[in-house]
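I had to read the description of the data format several times before I understood it. In essence, backbone conformation is discretised, so a fold becomes a row of integers matching the chain in length. I therefore recommend that a typical entry be quoted early in the introduction. For illustration, here is how one protein appears when written out as sequence plus structure tokens.

***
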Amino acid sequence: MPTQTFLNLPQKKRHRLIDAAIQEFSRVPVSDATISHIIKQAKIPRGSFYQYFADKFDLHHYIIGQFRTSWINQWRNFQIENHGNPFAAIRQLFPIILDDITSPQYYRFWQNTFITFRDHQMQPSQKKGHLAKKPILTTQNVALDHLAITADQLSLLQQELFASIFFGIRLYIMASYRGEKHPRQQTLDQFNTLISWLENGVVKRRDSYD
């Protein structure tokens, strides 16, 4: 996590460092990125970098966390728009997320990020604090009477829905890498299928296993 020193910086200086980091993490996966390239682009001394972040992995997780915070805020708004239906809300959110990750500014960043995840090169000490379990789904914003779960199980549903988002991002990255003709629409279709499975199940109600 960033230090208070970083958070106290003027917005322009914070953005310059983040933009430099995104540029470096877009050039290569975080495991191959160098702090030297980041600080050169950001025009800050090496000592200043370590006053802001523990290392490059810390900075990388902070950037992912900023995306995540933005997505969570939009998801909460969509929860209200969809009268407490978390599945409708996440279907509305996912195309916006795809727009974020497929933009020229961020596509290489996310591609390299998922290379890192795939190769298990993230440092364990940094992974622990990445996806903090904050209550997105609560009894106040979910129409619980329409779901076959208890209030205590909302956190598990939240984890599964957000895991689906990152799986959906991976679907797009892989489809694009394979040169599929319409990777965005293919990913949206697959994502909606996954959410439907989670919402409705995959076993036909008239079927039984004897």
Notes: Residues 120-132 have pLDDT under 50 and may be disordered.
